[in-house]
Amino acid sequence: MAGCSHQQTEHKPTAKVAASALNKSAAFDLQYEAFELENGLKVILHQDKSDPIVAMSTIVHVGSSREKAGRTGFAHFFEHMSFNDSENVPKGANRKMIPELGGSRNGGTWSDGTIYYEVVPKDAFDKLLWIDSDRLGFMLNTVDAGTLEREKQVVKNEKRQRVDNRPYGHTYHVIKKALYPENHPYNWTVIGDLADLQAATLEDVKEFYQQFYVPSNATLVIAGDIDIAETKKKVNQWFGEIKAGKPVPEMKPQPVSLARDKKLYHLDNFAKLPEIRLTFPAVEQYHQDAYALEVLAILLAEGKNAELYKSVVEKAGLASGVDAWNEADEIAGTFTINVRGNKGSQLDDVYRAIEQALVNFEKNAFSQIQLEKIKAKQETDFYYNFESILDKAKKLGEYNEYAGSPEYIKTDIANITAVTKADVIRVYHKYIKDKAAIITSFVPKDQPELILTGSVKADVREEEIKQGAEQNFVENDAIAFEKTPTKFDRSEPPLSELPELKIPDVWQSEQANGLRIYGIEQTELPIVNFSLRIDGGQLLDNKNKLGTAALMAQLMNEGSQSKTPLQLEQAIGLLGASLEVYGDQEAIVIQGQTLAKNFEQTIALMKEMLLTPRWDQQEFERLKAARLTRIIQDQGNASRIARNAFMKRLYPRGHIAGQPTGGTRETVTAISLDDVKAYYRKNISPKQASLHVVGAISQSRVLAASQGLASWSGKKISLPPQPKMSGLKQPQLYFIDLPGAKQSVIYVGKPTVAANSKDFYPVQVANNRLGSGMSARLGQTLRIQKGYTYGAYSYIPSTGYQSPFIAASQVRTNVTLESLEIFKDLIANYRDTYKESDLAVTKNIIIKGNSRKFETLDKLLAMLETQSRFDLADNYIEQRQTYVNQLGLEQVHQTISKHLDEQQMIYLVVGDAKSQLKRMKDLGYGEPVILDKQGNII
């Protein structure tokens, strides 16, 4: 989840790479030095001076598989605990200091491990060593009951957000309980059970830390602009005195088997569509069969030629898409087929279509071309797996900790590329054909008739909403403890010299037809990212047929006049490239990635898609049905309901911002293929377009390849102006009922200015200490101090109209009013509480954060897109840097007063009316206005 402090996943990180990538590109050579400290800590160093930044990744070999029954979710919970203070690092420093140094930090837990990672400008490298080493070796004495209780509430909020308050959220819980015996380490989910989390004690924390957070159970990777010899000395200083601890036994493979199918169902409070999932027992990571199972999943479900797609989507028309994947974890694995059906689809019918697809797969086999297409894509994926310095740090650590050495990358590559047709057929027969599976039916709570025949009710325990149910906690900021004696001084180290900001050179060109071209050459990896943006999008839709632009864009992916959808898909795949057309509120965009050697061929395919679309009636009907299905599905998503309704109330009728992107059921139903063609003829013009290219390719090659677009012609299109907005005269509170919601979604905000306004960047800067990241006021108050939420933020997206200021969070239901009051207080008093110290922190975050702004191709591409979209100068980053450097406190205060006036804002809550609606009037803004899920006043 973007912006959150931690990430909890249900699977291990994976690295998919291809041998051909290494064989064909001798220039790519990931050099590293590995060594081990006396206490057993495994260390890997990788030097990369392409950007003045350093990344650190620490993998501790402990995930949910190491937990005890009755203490499920503890590895993930301990990850949260580890972001608090330690003996030599003060409370809050980990979460606040790293962002305020211009860096980023996060963590994640999966079944088999926990990872902590950071990226900072190189001047803050010593501070990372201080923070990370103290967490691994000097944390335990500082943990108190208040911190323990606070983090319990945060983790439970995360569980509500990720599991309890979302459609299909309980699926993993049901499957794991059914597939694995009670004594199996995978019998429970990573997030665990609420009762187990609440029961955790300080003694549990100490026992867990002492048992698993020992140097010999971890791998530390440092990558970036470092000196290897100097870094080895620093690692020995900071990490060398940590006690070795007892060795942690290795986990051995524990595969499981099923004697018969187990069919289970759940009536889902939030689901709007029926979903069936087949989960087959499979093999652990790095097992020879896991590689072939990965290919099998792709062959069954991805693309027009996949048998599941042909049987379930094309022939039976029971769903808009299908999924299949292989998940190989450390001690066991699963192979999954998943179908979310159309509204009203009987899961008996879907199941029969899946069975028929498997019969067809066995009967029809697959071609060598299909296999080659998969391997070509793996070659491209190989490079993107190592694009950033942090990517490299993570991958080196994963191979070292779970395969025994970073050198296993070569074995992994060989195993992936060695998969043959015979291997795929063999694993199909061994693990899938006529084999038992866990079969789950998750259906809307009022549609039990859709459940697969023979299913029994799954044991899903819903949390009961009770006011004041959570325990109060008081954190002690002056915990008395005896410091662990050390020979090395563990006080906070100073910053080194600030690295000089190097902004990449931008080149520009324009074709005679009006197409503007922007580029940045960056040769670190042999890959290229590009995008073609055509201004207009939903802005140009007929108001009675909203969604036309989005449907047209989707349909442009489905073949060309010379290629069927399948042929186009194969042509792109064989290049190892990706090409996708999509539409949003303000544009039609074609995005692509490719190996540099295949750039010209990829651009030629883009030209086909752009200038000679196929306009296939059957594909149009399928995509239209899929869009209608998505609209229905979104009605069970609290966050989507809140976002759409908030924007509808914030902007006047007819304003583009108040319309749901992609249209409504009524407007999409009204769209015909002729409407799509008419939109294309009228609005797809080079005079509206800009092409952005970044990567290992010269300006001359880009211009030569783009000559293929010289025949594209069209007129300049006038975009309809949007109504000017002014703030409300007084705040207004709205409420949408989502019965049984375990969390309330809160949105607060007002319109500000368009992204091309001179005031726009000042508003973004002024917002920094309110809600930009976990170190800002909203996150610190609602999560760190109160434990009400998993995350809280505020932001101003870049739009061509008056961009909204949005402050938002998902809070536990029984503190909805208290959370609203915090939003109200923090925003209303923001100007008066914004001091010189806040300005200093803001400047540091932005100025130093720019050192990470140009590391990946995605970041470079975003820079070009922003420049062209809002007609900014080539050096606009430098201009903004100058603005921040020269910014004074009074300027910030004026911006806050002008654009972030709380008395001009609206408040929206999506939550459980039965337990919370009566309390809303206590906010002081009168009785809330009740809305339906579409944002209409009831």
UniProtKB/TrEMBL annotation:
InterPro entries: Metalloenz_LuxS/M16 (IPR011249), MPP/UQCRC_Complex (IPR050361), Pept_M16_N (IPR011765), Peptidase_M16_C (IPR007863). Residues 200-376, 671-844 form the Peptidase M16 C-terminal domain. SUPFAM superfamilies: LuxS/MPP-like metallohydrolase. Residues 42-167, 526-630 form the Peptidase M16 N-terminal domain. It comes from the Bacteria. Belongs to the peptidase M16 family. PANTHER family: METALLOPROTEASE, MITOCHONDRIAL-PROCESSING PEPTIDASE SUBUNIT ALPHA. This is Insulinase family protein. It comes from Thalassomonas haliotis.
